[in-house]
Amino acid sequence: MTAQHLLFLLGVPFFSVVVSALARRRELSGPLVLVVVGIVVSIVPFIPDYELQPEFVLMILLPPLLYQAAVETSVPSLRENWSAVLILSVAMVLVTT
Predict the structure, then answer these.
(1) Cβ(55)–Cβ(63) under 8 Å?
(2) Considering only CA atoms, which of 53, 26, 27, 23 is closest in space to residue 38?
(3) pTM for the whole thing?
């Protein structure tokens, strides 16, 4: 493992925590700010490209994100919007398969 890979492995989580904290302090949506920052960082030419294996994303990155979303979900809001949630989730499954 090179120093560049080690810096990437340590820098990305640290940078993500800092961006999330700043988003929370400014009362912005954390995931939305992280997506925007990720898009901006991907455009910057001096940052090297990295490829993630799908298994890594599915086994390591996705479960904590889903857990956090489930913890922060409002049950009354979900009950209020159950039809839209159901339609959108079924439509997404049909479109992506």
Answers:
(1) no
(2) 23
(3) 0.54
Q: Which residues contact 52 (CB under 8 A, 6 or more apart)?
A: 61
Nearest to 16 by CA among 2, 30, 28: 30
Q: Is residue 34 a contact partner of residue 16, using CB atoms and an 8 Å limit? A: yes
Residue 80: other Cβ atoms inside 10 A: 11
* Residue of 61, 16, 40, 50 whose CA lies nearest to 24: 16
**C-alpha–C-alpha distance, residues 54 and 11, integer Å:** 21
In tens, the pLDDT along 21-54 reads 999 899 888 888 998 998 998 888 887 777 778 8
